[in-house]
Amino acid sequence: MWFFARDPVRDFPFELSQEPPEGSPPGPWVLHRGRKKATGSPVSIFVYDVKPGAEEQTQVAKAAFKRLKTLRHPNILAYIDGLETEKCLHIVTEAVTPLGMYLKARGEAGGLKEQELSWGLHQIVKALSFLVNDCSLIHNNVCMAAVFVDRAGEWKLGGLDYMYSAQGNDGGPPSKGIPELEQYDPPELADSSGRVVREKWSADMWRLGCLIWEVFNGPLPRAAALRNPGKIPKSLVPHYCELVGANPKVRPNPSRFLQNCQAPGSFMNNCFVETNLFLEEIQIKEPAEKQKFFQELSKSLDSFPEDFCRHKVLPQLLTAFKFGNAGAVVLTPLFKVGKFLSAEEYQQKIIPVVVKMFSSTDRAMRIRLLQQMEQFIQYLDEPTVNTQIFPHVVHGFLDTNPAIREQTVKSMLLLAPKLNETNLNVELMKHFARLQAKDEQGPIRCNTTVCLGKIGSYLSASTRHRVLISAFSRATKDPFAPSRVAGVLGFAATHNLYSVSDCAHKILPVLCSLTVDPEKSVREQAFKAIRSFLSKLESVSEDPTQLAEVEKDVHAASSPGMGGAAASWAGWAVTGVSSLTSKLIRAHPTATPAGTNVPQRPPPEGHPTPAPTPVPATPTTSSHWETQQEDKGEAEDSSTADRWDDEDWGSLEQEAESVLAQQHDWNSRSQATRAGQVSHPERKSPESDWSSWEAEGSWEQGWQESNSSEPPPEGTRLASEYNWGGPESSDKGDPFAALSVCSSAQPRPDVDSWGEDNWEGLETESRQAKAELARKKREERRREMEAKRAEKKAAKGPMKLGARKLD
């Protein structure tokens, strides 16, 4: 019955867009944009409306429907679905744009590069080779109107309306009846005598020549225009002339035409075509070939089209990572292609892969992820960072490879703003304390100090109060000179986070001790910092009403805006000292924070060698500088404070380079540089504020005193006193050199011995101690058993074989 009838067009799972039809090619079909109803994915829909009296055109359309449905090839328009009714025909294909519209749009945007055109023509010729050589079919409609371009910029051959068999099974070529299409027919078709000898591909290769002419010169006005190559590249002209030759017998087969164009120096012999050919066969390539390809791919991506990178290279990279075990080599091209994606696409395609990569144990992958974190950190949300990325990243702090430890420290500059309270103020500070005190590489200790100064504004107020002064004070006692400079710059960059009381009682005494440092760069930065802090104190002293304004950030909650000063030295934090880390590690592979047995500068002539001064064994923490009152207080002179933002913080990099060039021994820092300090035995050291990190390492546990101050052996000289190949030193000595040899008759409770820290609370050393104790007990037990056996044997004497024991 009629009311049970269903409309097949309405039930079709695809719908036409409301936009007007695109520029449809000449022929029976009208091209519409569309989408799939279930997913919304874009498609193209070719529509033919059956009209009365047009039976011939209807048969042509039905033949094209059948051909497109049965032919499957990467370079032929991909069929998705179709609908055939008495009133219309619908063919659904991948989303494409007619080549004419594509060239016009790209021409307005700057035009296509020659390598893109070479690959497009390569695809059309390959499709023709498939039809002629594998299927024995003649396309019979090769022209601009029969070529379409997908979203990746791939050219697809369509327009199968007038296709026929080369073997003559379907009665020869059908009639077109459309002048716009008949102008591409070769001249021999006008000869009805049949005496012209030709190959089955001759007509299609002539039409291919017309297509090449139109691609470079625009629409073809008449056949005579083919004699002038126009803008066709010189490397393609000889092969083009073969296609449009008057003798159809000499027109090359499509496969031979491809070989000729891919010869060295020819039109299709370029990096873009080679990359595409490799991607088409990547599934059958050897692992070594894939590794080499991905390593070289990153260099070429800059010259490739954006659409090609997004829609063709990116899927292959993701597939290679998921199923091909490509490893870390895909990271560089993956992040490079990721720049072309929107934020939503990046979240969907790149972030899941990145999160999975962080759980990998491959060191090469981990270090590349850390090095390139800046490219994807903005797309990571806080829950993902805290639960899926940070737990894996912190393993890098304990890695035996110095490069991974260094990159892990540097990555904290990017991760810190996204870390939660526990990860930032507890876990991260625990690892920083261990690195600054225990790491044997001076550059890594330096970078830890730098990173702490940069992220100081993100810490909570209580953590800042416990950590910053102790950490920077420890850095100023490091035997590695750039670490001491980093400690001074750390104080300066976070000056707004300290109270006036802390500035006067804790920071200035530490900075003053550096004014007699053996390194000039350390002294210069120390004097700058002292002047800045003194100007603050003086301004508050003159106008006490400024106190509240100066200390507004001291007890404030963590805020990125408070790190304005710290931001000014991020440059040398990441690209200054850190860039020299690998060089410095190679130059000083055994440099440790231990300061034991450091040779002292010999006394000047005429001065007796000082006798060893006994030093009390009572440890003195950094809280020695603490006073009983913790009230208000830090002055800020805006003119002086702003000067720190304009400083040349790159001096730290210059210092590191000069130290590397001179091959300076960082372990030769004299323990007597602060011999002139006056001890205060009546002042008691408060309990360390860092007790919460006692089990895993503490910033303040390193403030223990050396047990003795032995004089250097006779004739011992500091490494800085030797001429390491630089310009000859003048006779005028450094006035600070004599300060390091002055003896002191009193104990020096504030002298720091970097290498005598008591780290027994660390879990690793605790386990080692337990294992050593168990081993000793087993050894003692074994010796006792052997002694008992020896006594018993000596008492009874040896027994003869077979003798009976009488007792």
TrEMBL record:
| Listed Pro residues bias regions | 600-617
Q: Note the InterPro entries from the entry.
A: ARM-like, ARM-type_fold, CIK-Related_Protein, HEAT, HEAT_type_2, Kinase-like_dom_sf, Prot_kinase_dom
Record localization: Cytoplasm, Cytoskeleton, Microtubule organizing center, Centrosome; Endoplasmic reticulum-Golgi intermediate compartment; Golgi apparatus, cis-Golgi network
Keywords, in A-Z order: Coiled coil, Cytoplasm, Cytoskeleton, ER-Golgi transport, Golgi apparatus, Kinase, Phosphoprotein, Repeat, Transferase, Transport
Q: Which BP terms from GO are recorded?
A: inflammatory response; intracellular protein localization; neuron development; retrograde vesicle-mediated transport, Golgi to endoplasmic reticulum; spinal cord motor neuron differentiation
Q: What functional role does this protein have? A: Regulates COPI-mediated retrograde protein traffic at the interface between the Golgi apparatus and the endoplasmic reticulum. Involved in the maintenance of the Golgi apparatus morphology.
State how it assembles: Homooligomer. Interacts with GORAB. Interacts with COPA, COPB1 and COPB2. Interacts with AP2B1.
Q: PANTHER family given for it?
A: N-TERMINAL KINASE-LIKE PROTEIN, SCY1-RELATED S/T PROTEIN KINASE-LIKE
Protein name, UniProt field: N-terminal kinase-like protein
Which organism was this protein described from? Answer: Heterocephalus glaber
Lineage of the species this protein comes from: Eukaryota, Metazoa, Chordata, Craniata, Vertebrata
